[in-house]
Amino acid sequence: MKAPTREITRIVPDATALKALTHPVRLRMLGMLRIDGPATATRLAERLGLNTGATSYHLRQLAQHGFIEEAPDQPSRRDRWWQARHESTSFFEPGGTQEQFDTSVAFAQAALTEQVNLMQRAQEEFVRLPPDWQATTHISDFTIAMTTEQANALKGKLLELLWQAMREAPGLGANLPPGMELYTVMLHAFPHPGRLTGEEGEKT
Q1: Among 106, 19, 14, 9, which Cα is nearest to 61's?
Q2: Across the chain, where does the E strand assignment appear?
Q3: Which of 100, 131, 161, 193 is the most exposed place for a label (fewest CB within 10 A)?
Q4: Domain locations in the chain?
Q5: What's the whole-model pTM score?
Q6: Is residue 200's pLDDT more than 70?
Q7: Which CATH class, in words, describes the domain spanning 10-167?
Q8: Regarding beta strands 68-70 and 10-11, do their DSSP bridges make them parallel or antiparallel, or are they unpaired?
Q9: CA–CA separation, 170 and 24 (whole Å)
Q10: Which residue did the predictor score with more confidence, 162 or 172?
Q11: Which of 183, 8, 189, 182 is nearest to 88 (CA)?
């Protein structure tokens, strides 16, 4: 029997909104709201090691550009609860303006830094994981000779496989059934550095 699927909400921000998201604190804050569900400025400040004033400012910036919104259910009148509006951000659209391209490059660098930090934390926690979850961890790389058509086709297949798995899974921030935990897959696909630009790459 085929698993039921759901729609994955995405945002394609313009250059101004994407530029606001290149700030590392805002990027991490948005990730927390997407993965862990609604939170207050106070709770986020504790997790990020910031004061509530700075955290509230970054939350307002995220709300202004459409990434987050006030949660419909406010448990307390004293603290404002915020939630993510989307589960995913699409940031590179071929054929855009030079400003959009430059902002996409800046955002990609900010996202990469956060992803590397997350991978490092996962590796540090590896020895403390239960054995069955240790077995789900995988680190590898593949370098394959391809045309641009073949590379795009492979990228598309990998992405569709991951999107399908996400559509069949509970939404981020939801209560998970027993035995189910959040599992992160990071996909980095790129032309091997140094070959197309004529720059000297690392030789192995």
Answers
A1: 19
A2: 10-11, 39-40, 68-70, 81-84, 88-89
A3: 131
A4: 10-167
A5: 0.87
A6: no
A7: mainly alpha
A8: unpaired
A9: 27
A10: 162
A11: 8
Question: What confidence tier does 5 reach under pLDDT thresholds 50, 70, 90?
Answer: confident
Of 201, 154, 164, 203, give the one whose Cα is nearest residue 185.
Answer: 164
- The closest of 167, 148, 149 to 159, measured between CA atoms, is 167
- Sign (positive/negative) of CA torsion 9, 15, 17, 18? positive
Candidates 69, 67, 80; CA nearest to 20 is 67
Burial class (CB in 10 A: 0-12, 13-18, 19+), 44: buried
- What single letter denotes the amino acid at residue 53? G
Q: Which residue's structure tokens are 């897959």?
A: 185
Confidence of residue 2 (pLDDT cuts 50, 70, 90): low
CB 116 within 8 A of CB 77: no
Which amino acid is present at 16? T
- Give the per-residue pLDDT at 78: 77
Q: Around 183, how many Cα atoms within 13 Å sit in the side-chain half-sphere?
A: 15
